[in-house]
Amino acid sequence: MSTSSLPGSASGSLPSPAVSRVRHGLAPWARIAGLALCALLTLGPVIWTVSTSLHTPAKSFDLPPKIIPTDPTVVAYRGVFDQIDVWLYALNSTLVTALIAVGQMITAGLAGYAFARLEFRFKKPLFALVLATMMVPLQVTIVPVFLELKAMGLTDTLLGLIIPAFPTAFGTFLMRQYFLGMPKDLGEAAMIDGAGPWRVFRSVYAPLAAPGLAIVGVLAFNYHWNEFFRPLILETSTENLTLPLGSGLPPGQTSAPARSPSSSPGVVLSMIPAVVVFVVGQRPLREGITSAGVNR
Protein backbone atom coordinates (compact mmCIF):
# COMPACT_ATOMS: atom_id res chain seq x y z
CA MET A 1 0.00 0.00 0.00
CA SER A 2 1.55 3.29 -1.14
CA THR A 3 1.52 6.33 1.04
CA SER A 4 1.42 9.83 -0.40
CA SER A 5 3.47 12.58 1.17
CA LEU A 6 1.41 14.91 3.25
CA PRO A 7 1.64 18.70 2.92
CA GLY A 8 4.33 19.95 5.23
CA SER A 9 6.21 16.63 5.37
CA ALA A 10 9.99 16.65 4.97
CA SER A 11 9.94 14.79 1.65
CA GLY A 12 7.66 17.02 -0.40
CA SER A 13 7.28 20.40 1.28
CA LEU A 14 8.84 23.66 0.13
CA PRO A 15 10.97 25.74 2.50
CA SER A 16 8.96 27.98 4.74
CA PRO A 17 8.95 31.75 4.06
CA ALA A 18 11.10 32.33 7.15
CA VAL A 19 13.76 29.90 5.92
CA SER A 20 13.74 31.50 2.46
CA ARG A 21 14.21 34.96 3.98
CA VAL A 22 17.13 33.72 6.05
CA ARG A 23 18.78 32.15 3.00
CA HIS A 24 18.30 35.28 0.90
CA GLY A 25 19.64 37.39 3.75
CA LEU A 26 22.77 35.26 4.21
CA ALA A 27 23.64 35.00 0.52
CA PRO A 28 24.98 38.59 0.14
CA TRP A 29 26.95 38.30 3.38
CA ALA A 30 28.48 35.02 2.22
CA ARG A 31 29.61 36.66 -1.03
CA ILE A 32 31.00 39.63 0.86
CA ALA A 33 32.88 37.33 3.25
CA GLY A 34 34.35 35.37 0.33
CA LEU A 35 35.46 38.54 -1.47
CA ALA A 36 36.91 39.94 1.76
CA LEU A 37 38.93 36.75 2.25
CA CYS A 38 40.25 36.92 -1.33
CA ALA A 39 41.14 40.60 -0.86
CA LEU A 40 42.96 39.82 2.39
CA LEU A 41 45.00 37.06 0.74
CA THR A 42 45.85 39.41 -2.15
CA LEU A 43 46.71 42.43 -0.01
CA GLY A 44 48.50 40.45 2.70
CA PRO A 45 51.98 40.62 1.13
CA VAL A 46 51.50 44.32 0.33
CA ILE A 47 50.47 45.11 3.91
CA TRP A 48 53.42 43.12 5.22
CA THR A 49 55.86 44.99 2.94
CA VAL A 50 54.53 48.40 3.94
CA SER A 51 54.65 47.43 7.62
CA THR A 52 58.23 46.19 7.32
CA SER A 53 59.29 49.41 5.60
CA LEU A 54 58.09 51.40 8.62
CA HIS A 55 60.20 49.41 11.09
CA THR A 56 63.66 50.46 12.12
CA PRO A 57 66.43 48.27 10.65
CA ALA A 58 67.02 46.63 14.05
CA LYS A 59 63.34 45.80 14.64
CA SER A 60 62.92 44.39 11.14
CA PHE A 61 64.51 41.15 12.37
CA ASP A 62 62.43 40.78 15.55
CA LEU A 63 60.95 37.36 16.24
CA PRO A 64 58.05 36.98 16.19
CA PRO A 65 57.65 39.74 13.58
CA LYS A 66 55.09 42.45 14.23
CA ILE A 67 52.62 43.44 11.54
CA ILE A 68 51.80 46.78 13.19
CA PRO A 69 55.00 48.70 13.99
CA THR A 70 55.14 49.99 17.53
CA ASP A 71 57.35 52.97 16.63
CA PRO A 72 56.82 53.66 12.90
CA THR A 73 59.62 55.59 11.24
CA VAL A 74 60.65 56.63 7.74
CA VAL A 75 64.37 56.31 8.39
CA ALA A 76 64.54 53.31 6.07
CA TYR A 77 63.12 55.41 3.22
CA ARG A 78 65.84 58.02 3.75
CA GLY A 79 68.36 55.20 3.63
CA VAL A 80 67.10 54.11 0.22
CA PHE A 81 67.73 57.57 -1.24
CA ASP A 82 71.18 57.58 0.35
CA GLN A 83 72.16 54.13 -0.97
CA ILE A 84 70.85 54.19 -4.56
CA ASP A 85 70.08 56.74 -7.25
CA VAL A 86 66.30 56.52 -7.02
CA TRP A 87 65.62 59.31 -9.52
CA LEU A 88 67.83 57.76 -12.21
CA TYR A 89 66.20 54.36 -11.80
CA ALA A 90 62.74 55.95 -11.82
CA LEU A 91 63.61 57.79 -15.03
CA ASN A 92 64.82 54.55 -16.63
CA SER A 93 61.64 52.74 -15.58
CA THR A 94 59.43 55.57 -16.85
CA LEU A 95 61.19 55.67 -20.22
CA VAL A 96 61.17 51.91 -20.70
CA THR A 97 57.61 51.38 -19.51
CA ALA A 98 56.09 54.32 -21.42
CA LEU A 99 57.72 53.31 -24.70
CA ILE A 100 56.68 49.68 -24.24
CA ALA A 101 53.08 50.73 -23.50
CA VAL A 102 52.93 52.94 -26.60
CA GLY A 103 54.60 50.27 -28.72
CA GLN A 104 52.17 47.58 -27.58
CA MET A 105 49.21 49.84 -28.27
CA ILE A 106 50.45 50.36 -31.84
CA THR A 107 51.34 46.74 -32.58
CA ALA A 108 48.21 45.34 -30.90
CA GLY A 109 45.97 47.79 -32.74
CA LEU A 110 47.48 47.02 -36.13
CA ALA A 111 47.64 43.26 -35.63
CA GLY A 112 44.15 43.08 -34.11
CA TYR A 113 42.69 45.03 -37.02
CA ALA A 114 44.47 42.81 -39.55
CA PHE A 115 43.20 39.59 -37.97
CA ALA A 116 39.68 40.97 -37.60
CA ARG A 117 39.02 42.88 -40.84
CA LEU A 118 41.59 41.96 -43.49
CA GLU A 119 41.56 38.81 -45.55
CA PHE A 120 44.85 37.06 -46.28
CA ARG A 121 46.17 33.53 -46.56
CA PHE A 122 46.74 31.47 -43.42
CA LYS A 123 45.00 34.06 -41.26
CA LYS A 124 43.50 31.57 -38.83
CA PRO A 125 46.66 29.44 -38.41
CA LEU A 126 48.73 32.58 -37.86
CA PHE A 127 46.30 33.85 -35.23
CA ALA A 128 46.37 30.44 -33.51
CA LEU A 129 50.18 30.64 -33.54
CA VAL A 130 50.03 34.09 -31.93
CA LEU A 131 47.76 32.77 -29.17
CA ALA A 132 50.04 29.77 -28.67
CA THR A 133 52.89 32.09 -27.70
CA MET A 134 50.92 33.02 -24.58
CA MET A 135 51.53 29.51 -23.25
CA VAL A 136 55.33 29.76 -23.58
CA PRO A 137 56.96 30.94 -20.31
CA LEU A 138 59.34 33.88 -20.42
CA GLN A 139 62.08 31.72 -18.94
CA VAL A 140 62.03 29.53 -22.07
CA THR A 141 62.57 32.40 -24.51
CA ILE A 142 64.97 34.58 -22.50
CA VAL A 143 68.10 32.77 -23.75
CA PRO A 144 67.32 33.13 -27.50
CA VAL A 145 66.29 36.75 -26.92
CA PHE A 146 69.53 37.42 -25.05
CA LEU A 147 71.61 35.89 -27.85
CA GLU A 148 69.81 37.94 -30.50
CA LEU A 149 70.26 41.14 -28.51
CA LYS A 150 73.92 40.31 -27.98
CA ALA A 151 74.40 39.82 -31.73
CA MET A 152 72.82 43.24 -32.34
CA GLY A 153 74.82 44.90 -29.57
CA LEU A 154 71.74 45.77 -27.52
CA THR A 155 72.52 43.95 -24.30
CA ASP A 156 72.91 46.17 -21.25
CA THR A 157 70.92 48.92 -22.98
CA LEU A 158 67.44 50.27 -22.42
CA LEU A 159 66.57 49.49 -26.06
CA GLY A 160 67.27 45.85 -25.28
CA LEU A 161 64.40 45.98 -22.78
CA ILE A 162 62.04 47.99 -24.98
CA ILE A 163 62.14 46.44 -28.46
CA PRO A 164 61.52 42.74 -27.57
CA ALA A 165 58.46 43.75 -25.52
CA PHE A 166 56.60 45.45 -28.40
CA PRO A 167 54.74 42.32 -29.64
CA THR A 168 51.89 41.29 -27.36
CA ALA A 169 49.74 38.22 -27.96
CA PHE A 170 47.13 39.18 -25.36
CA GLY A 171 46.85 42.71 -26.74
CA THR A 172 46.42 41.33 -30.27
CA PHE A 173 43.65 39.02 -29.09
CA LEU A 174 41.93 41.79 -27.16
CA MET A 175 42.02 44.25 -30.06
CA ARG A 176 40.81 41.61 -32.49
CA GLN A 177 37.74 41.11 -30.30
CA TYR A 178 37.15 44.87 -30.33
CA PHE A 179 37.34 45.17 -34.07
CA LEU A 180 35.11 42.12 -34.59
CA GLY A 181 32.43 43.80 -32.50
CA MET A 182 32.38 46.93 -34.65
CA PRO A 183 29.94 47.23 -37.60
CA LYS A 184 31.41 46.37 -40.98
CA ASP A 185 29.19 49.04 -42.56
CA LEU A 186 31.46 51.78 -41.25
CA GLY A 187 34.48 50.48 -43.11
CA GLU A 188 32.53 49.65 -46.23
CA ALA A 189 31.08 53.16 -46.37
CA ALA A 190 34.55 54.66 -46.04
CA MET A 191 35.87 52.42 -48.82
CA ILE A 192 33.01 53.47 -51.10
CA ASP A 193 34.11 57.08 -50.53
CA GLY A 194 37.59 56.13 -51.74
CA ALA A 195 39.41 55.40 -48.48
CA GLY A 196 42.05 52.69 -48.51
CA PRO A 197 42.62 50.04 -45.80
CA TRP A 198 45.07 52.26 -43.90
CA ARG A 199 42.73 55.26 -44.01
CA VAL A 200 39.80 53.12 -42.90
CA PHE A 201 41.79 51.90 -39.90
CA ARG A 202 43.21 55.29 -38.97
CA SER A 203 40.08 57.40 -39.41
CA VAL A 204 37.22 55.00 -38.70
CA TYR A 205 38.15 52.03 -36.52
CA ALA A 206 41.11 53.28 -34.46
CA PRO A 207 39.15 56.10 -32.74
CA LEU A 208 36.38 53.65 -31.84
CA ALA A 209 38.94 51.24 -30.38
CA ALA A 210 40.32 53.80 -27.91
CA PRO A 211 38.95 51.94 -24.82
CA GLY A 212 40.64 48.74 -25.94
CA LEU A 213 43.90 50.54 -26.60
CA ALA A 214 43.64 52.09 -23.13
CA ILE A 215 43.39 48.59 -21.64
CA VAL A 216 46.50 47.47 -23.50
CA GLY A 217 48.40 50.56 -22.37
CA VAL A 218 47.41 50.31 -18.69
CA LEU A 219 48.13 46.58 -18.45
CA ALA A 220 51.45 46.99 -20.27
CA PHE A 221 52.49 49.83 -17.95
CA ASN A 222 51.65 47.91 -14.78
CA TYR A 223 53.31 44.71 -15.94
CA HIS A 224 56.54 46.17 -17.27
CA TRP A 225 56.93 48.75 -14.50
CA ASN A 226 57.09 45.90 -11.98
CA GLU A 227 59.15 43.65 -14.24
CA PHE A 228 62.18 42.16 -12.52
CA PHE A 229 63.32 39.07 -14.43
CA ARG A 230 64.17 40.55 -17.84
CA PRO A 231 66.10 43.56 -16.44
CA LEU A 232 67.96 41.19 -14.12
CA ILE A 233 69.17 39.12 -17.10
CA LEU A 234 69.69 41.86 -19.68
CA GLU A 235 71.08 44.76 -17.62
CA THR A 236 74.43 44.76 -15.85
CA SER A 237 75.43 48.43 -15.64
CA THR A 238 74.23 50.39 -12.64
CA GLU A 239 73.09 53.34 -14.76
CA ASN A 240 70.75 51.12 -16.80
CA LEU A 241 68.86 49.52 -13.90
CA THR A 242 65.12 50.02 -13.52
CA LEU A 243 63.53 51.05 -10.24
CA PRO A 244 62.26 47.60 -9.12
CA LEU A 245 65.63 46.05 -9.89
CA GLY A 246 67.72 48.90 -8.50
CA SER A 247 65.73 49.15 -5.27
CA GLY A 248 65.87 45.39 -4.71
CA LEU A 249 69.55 45.04 -5.57
CA PRO A 250 71.66 47.81 -4.02
CA PRO A 251 74.92 48.64 -5.83
CA GLY A 252 77.59 45.99 -5.41
CA GLN A 253 75.14 43.13 -4.86
CA THR A 254 74.23 40.46 -7.39
CA SER A 255 71.31 38.99 -5.47
CA ALA A 256 68.78 40.31 -2.99
CA PRO A 257 68.98 39.12 0.61
CA ALA A 258 66.16 37.06 2.00
CA ARG A 259 65.10 39.80 4.40
CA SER A 260 66.64 43.20 3.97
CA PRO A 261 65.38 46.28 5.84
CA SER A 262 66.43 48.47 2.92
CA SER A 263 64.60 46.45 0.25
CA SER A 264 61.05 46.92 1.62
CA PRO A 265 61.03 50.76 1.29
CA GLY A 266 62.38 50.41 -2.24
CA VAL A 267 59.62 47.96 -3.11
CA VAL A 268 57.00 50.32 -1.70
CA LEU A 269 58.42 53.24 -3.69
CA SER A 270 58.42 51.19 -6.88
CA MET A 271 54.77 50.22 -6.34
CA ILE A 272 53.43 53.77 -6.11
CA PRO A 273 53.51 54.71 -9.85
CA ALA A 274 51.88 51.43 -10.87
CA VAL A 275 49.09 51.89 -8.31
CA VAL A 276 48.51 55.49 -9.45
CA VAL A 277 48.30 54.48 -13.12
CA PHE A 278 45.92 51.64 -12.31
CA VAL A 279 43.64 53.89 -10.23
CA VAL A 280 43.60 56.60 -12.91
CA GLY A 281 42.97 54.06 -15.68
CA GLN A 282 40.49 51.98 -13.72
CA ARG A 283 37.40 53.37 -15.44
CA PRO A 284 38.52 52.85 -19.07
CA LEU A 285 39.96 49.49 -18.02
CA ARG A 286 36.64 48.35 -16.57
CA GLU A 287 34.58 49.70 -19.46
CA GLY A 288 36.94 48.27 -22.04
CA ILE A 289 36.96 44.78 -20.54
CA THR A 290 33.15 44.84 -20.33
CA SER A 291 32.86 45.90 -23.96
CA ALA A 292 35.34 43.23 -25.10
CA GLY A 293 33.43 40.57 -23.17
CA VAL A 294 30.21 41.12 -25.12
CA ASN A 295 31.93 41.08 -28.52
CA ARG A 296 31.93 37.87 -30.47
From TrEMBL:
Pfam families: BPD_transp_1. The chain crosses the membrane at residues 29-50, 86-114, 126-147, 159-179, 200-225. One of its GO terms (cellular component) is plasma membrane. The lineage of its organism: Bacteria, Bacillati, Actinomycetota, Actinomycetes, Kitasatosporales. CDD domains: TM_PBP2. Keywords: Cell membrane, Membrane, Transmembrane, Transmembrane helix, Transport. It is a multi-pass membrane protein. This is Sugar ABC transporter, permease. GO terms for biological process: transmembrane transport. Its main location: membrane. It is found in: Cell membrane. The keyword Cell membrane applies. It comes from the Bacteria. Residues 90-280 form the ABC transmembrane type-1 domain. Belongs to the binding-protein-dependent transport system permease family.
